[in-house]
Amino acid sequence: MNIKNTLQEHKNRLDFCGRQLAIAEVTKNRENINKLNKEINELKAKIAETQTQQKTQLSDKAQKIVNMNFNRVLSKAEQADMGKLKKSVRGLVVVHPMTALGKEIGVKEVTGYAFKPF
């Protein structure tokens, strides 16, 4: 399972446990409160670990892309016909500034990275 889905499942479970904890506190069920608090703490730890893994994975990918020999900003015409551009340039990686990868690298415009000039 990929990291994004795992993270989302942990967050959903944490949300569910939070709602159950509110119900248990209203009914003053000490056994459930203790069990849910323990589960919430475990889920928070899992979420933090998963987010660290995700950031590490993103940093590794960003480092590989930045190490490519050639990069340049793509024109609007090239962006409009991305399929043609990707077919003509072997190993082209396009990074958009609004994605997590684009923010990690720090690009301001849509940029293409490749091993050879294009």
Overview of the molecule:
- The chain has 118 residues and is mainly alpha-helical.
- Helix content is 68%, strand content 9%.
- It has a three-stranded antiparallel beta sheet, with no helix packed on it.
- The model has no long low-confidence stretch (mean pLDDT 92).
Helical content stands at 55-70%
**Unreliable runs:** none
Q: Give me the count of strands.
A: 3
Tell me the β content.
5-15%
Q: What kind of sheet is the major sheet?
A: 3 strands, antiparallel
Order of helices and strands: HHEHHEHE
Please work out how many helical segments DSSP would assign: 5
Question: What is the approximate shape?
Answer: elongated
> SS-based structural class?
mainly alpha
Q: Which strand order does the major sheet show?
A: 1-3-2
Distance between the termini: 36 Å
Kindly report the oligomeric state of this protein. single chain
Radius of gyration: 22 Å
Calculate the mean pLDDT score and round it. Answer: 92
Descriptive keywords:
118 residues; mainly alpha; three-stranded antiparallel beta sheet; 3 strands; 68% helix; 9% strand
Q: In short, what is this structure?
A:
Helix content is 68%, strand content 9%.
What is the fold's blueprint, element by element?
Blueprint: H1 3-27, H2 30-66, E1 70-73, H3 76-80, H4 82-88, E2 93-95, H5 100-105, E3 111-114
Antiparallel strand pairs: 1-3, 2-3
Helix pairs in contact: 1-2
